[in-house]
Amino acid sequence: MLPFKVHILGCGSALPTLRHNASAQVVEIRDKLFLVDCGEGCQVQLRRSRLGFSKINSVFISHLHGDHCFGLIGLVSTLGMLGRTAPFHVYAPAGLGPMLDAQVTMFCTGLDFKVVFHSIDTEKAGLIYEDRSLTVSTIPLCHRVECCGFLFREKPTLPHIRRDMIDFYGIPVCQINNIKNGLDWTTADGEVIPNSRLVTPSAPPRSYAYCSDTKYMPGLAAMVEGVSTLYHESTYAEADIQRAAKFYHSTARQAATVAMQAKVGKLIIGHFSARYDNERILLDEARDVFANTFLADEMETFDI
Q1: Distance CA 235, CA 260 (A)
Q2: Strand pairing partners for 295?
Q3: Measuring CA to CA, which residue among 154, 191, 144, 142 is closest to residue 170?
Q4: Handedness of CA 280, 293, 35, 139 (dihedral sign)
Q5: Per the residue annotation, which of 31, 37, 67, 164 is the catalytic one?
Q6: DSSP letter at 195?
Q7: pLDDT tens digit string along 174-227?
Q8: Where on the phi/psi map is residue 277: left (φ > 0), alpha (ψ -120 to 50), or beta?
Q9: In this structure, how many other beta carbons lie within 10 angstroms of the beta carbon of residue 293?
Q10: 97 near 116, Cβ under 8 Å?
Q11: What does the pLDDT look like over 115-137, one tens digit per residue?
Q12: Residue 121 designated active-site
């Protein structure tokens, strides 16, 4: 099975600490890298992770709070110094467009590549990116500013050839792609061999939902139902639930409730408040509701 992973570069919230970096992740799928949010320090974390800068062709910004986007112009500048020529695509709320243009004009003159800005509608779910192997869609969230999450869905792959049956019936190699695409095989004697005997099903497509800053949304579970892995911000413990509501954030227990209702495979919690010296309290509260919960941490990699 081809790789589908998420690399945690930063999982802290707005107030800088010595323990956590600002929000940033890299989604790796089939040898492609996608950056999700780009807080301060993202470049250093990319260096530490040994993920290649040049492989990142797109960045998805969930909202315009600094801990999710202050690292973007620095990354663009570094890509220029590294000699990039391929376009760099930025998907973000519309308000970032003029600011990004101004920053590029001020700090990044003479780039040999285009910074292509794609305005996204944070208020409705919609397809914003597609290639041969995956789609990326928005997930509307509820925060103090326009905000959305991102849903990465792997496209189904073709079934696997049964080599024993191919050899048994003497099917030529030139017909294998046709068999993978559903063709039956007719022998020289006129016997029709159904396709189901010649292939085995491929693995079910995997999916990753990134739910950035948001207050608890009872309807969110329906939008991420059945995903393989869910990342959901968990800024606060249950004792601070009123603070979470005030600042439009979630508790770990609320994140786990979404995971349980959505019947996801795995939950990763992050965006931890600086008030906690040890996030174990958040993990324990989440696991009380959804057992298959994990803490995000810098340089941690999760298989989707």
Answers
A1: 18
A2: 269
A3: 191
A4: negative
A5: 67
A6: G
A7: 999 999 899 999 888 889 999 999 999 888 999 999 999 999 999 999 999 999
A8: alpha
A9: 25
A10: no
A11: 999 999 999 999 999 999 999 99
A12: no
Token duo for residue 107: 């700090």
Three-state secondary-structure class, residue 127? strand
Give the whole-angstrom CA distance, residue 202 versus residue 159.
Answer: 5
- 38 torsion bin: left (phi>0), alpha (psi -120 to 50), beta (else): beta
CB 229 within 8 A of CB 145: no
Strands (DSSP E) contained in the chain are 4-10, 24-29, 32-38, 56-60, 88-93, 115-120, 127-130, 134-140, 148-154, 160-161, 185-186, 192-193, 199-200, 207-211, 229-233, 266-270, 293-295, 301-303
Q: Which amino acid is at 304?
A: I
Pair of tokens at residue 40: 């301060």
For the sheet with 127-130, list strands across it. Answer: 127-130, 134-140, 148-154, 207-211, 229-233, 266-270, 293-295
Place of tokens 């939902």: 209
